[in-house]
Amino acid sequence: MRRWGSTRRQGTTGRTGQRGRTGEPERTGRTGRRLRRATAAVACAAALAALTAVPAQAQGPARQERAPHWSLKDTGAPDVRFRGLAAVSRDTAWVAGTLGTVLRTTDGGRTWRDVSPPGAGELQFRDVEAFDARRAVVLAIGEGEDSRVYRTDDGGTTWTETFRNPDPRAFYDCVTFFDHRHGLAMSDPVDGRFRILSTRDGGRSWTVLPDTGMPPALEGEAGFAASGQCLVSSGPKDVWLATGGADRARVLHSADRGRTWTATDTPIPAGDPARGVFALAFRDRHHGLAVGGDFNPGLPSPDAAARTTDGGRGWRPAAGPPPAYRSGVAWLPHSRTDALAVGPTGTDLTTDGGRTWRTVDTGSYDTVDCTPDRGCWAAGEKGRVARLEQ
Predict the structure, then answer these.
(1) Rounded Cα gap, residues 88 and 31, in angstroms
(2) What is Dmax (Cα atoms) for the chain?
(3) Euclidean distance between CA atoms 347 and 326, whole angstroms
(4) CA distance to 276, 308, 323, 331, per residue, from 14 (Å)
(5) Which of 20, 55, 149, 279 has its CA 20 to 30 A from that of 181?
(6) Phi, psi of 250 (to 5 degrees)
(7) 86, 17 in Cβ contact below 8 A?
(8) pLDDT band for position 2 (cuts 50, 70, 90)
(9) Alpha-carbon distance 93 to 106, whole Å?
(10) Where is this region: Disordered (predicted)?
(11) CA 302 to chain CA centroid, nearest Å
(12) Which of 35 and 328 is assigned the larger pLDDT?
């Protein structure tokens, strides 16, 4: 969305749908898969219980261990705001942000390598999708040629610009992948309809899809390039697009990789260029979460979260929503009920599938992403990147 901040994951495997699992012990067969799922589920449940428990220091000298918490990692980039985040594993993550910055860690955030594309210092990267520690795609936002896509196959040592927007009316906000080959990017409306860009080779080449299957956009409707989560996928063909800025905040759904779409109103308030749905997360093709509100600091954001159990055909407001605007959301791995939402004023946790939320941290983050091996990461302003420590 050009009007703000422009110069403006998702099943349990994250926003790309099928991310790599670097650093995970190699096991084969059904027994190995069951063991991985069971181990991660037990650890995740224990982490959630401790996250909301009484702090160890309040339990007396017998308990000195700390509860799970966001642990800030020193990125060495205090002037950068990271709105793009791709969690590959507990050890490996990519972040992308302002000043054309892309960073990568492969040791759990202890060290970060600056892998920014050469000559991109004037660009704003708002989304990054990583397949593993070496292969990633980043999206730069902006009007006309400022909207670009880059791909790397060697961990960011070299990059190839694979798309530069030739249309001054287009403004790309988000990108998502169904698998290592098939993906989509979305632009704010052109000629009254959202524009969809498609790749079938992992982001090496892109094609604008026909807009005949896209419903008309509302007056003032656009996407929010706030967290890389305004376009998310789950499974091989399902994808959802979040909107705001119009009289109604909507979610558009496609079950055929972006060729035809249906639009559904959400209960998240709109009616202003700064209001609407900012982020989506789907743990499967039926169960999804939406968060948003009003991004202007200090303004109230009632009903800032909603949930669906029918693939986005209907949305219900949270009975106990987050207390303020939230720009990122992610399901916790191996859970059918637990998720995190983040924003500039804090992190909220739901343990009932989005019906109610409660604040568990007051740090500022713009985006959040989790991986199957319990690697939950968050990123935001002033170079802030954190990992949820178990």
Answers:
(1) 23
(2) 66
(3) 8
(4) 22, 18, 25, 8
(5) 279
(6) -120, 165
(7) no
(8) very low
(9) 7
(10) 1-35
(11) 22
(12) 328
C-alpha–C-alpha distance, residues 156 and 136, integer Å:
8
Q: How many CA atoms lie within 13 A of 85 on its CB side?
A: 34
3-class DSSP assignment, residue 293: strand
CA distances for 68 relative to 360, 365, 371, angstroms: 11, 17, 16
Q: From CA 384, how far away is CA 45, in angstroms rounded?
A: 26
Cα 259 to Cα 256: distance, rounded to the nearest angstrom? 6
pLDDT at res. 137: 98
Q: How far apart are CA 213 and CA 256, in angstroms?
A: 10
CA distances from 38 to 20, 287, 388 (A): 19, 21, 19
pLDDT tens string 208-235: 999 999 999 999 999 999 999 999 999 9
**The token pair that represents 185 in the structure block:** 């990017």
For residues 17 and 131, which has the higher predicted lDDT (pLDDT)?
131
Mean per-residue pLDDT, 30-39: 44
**Of all residues in the chain, what percent are helix, strand and coil, respectively (each to 5)?**
10, 35, 55
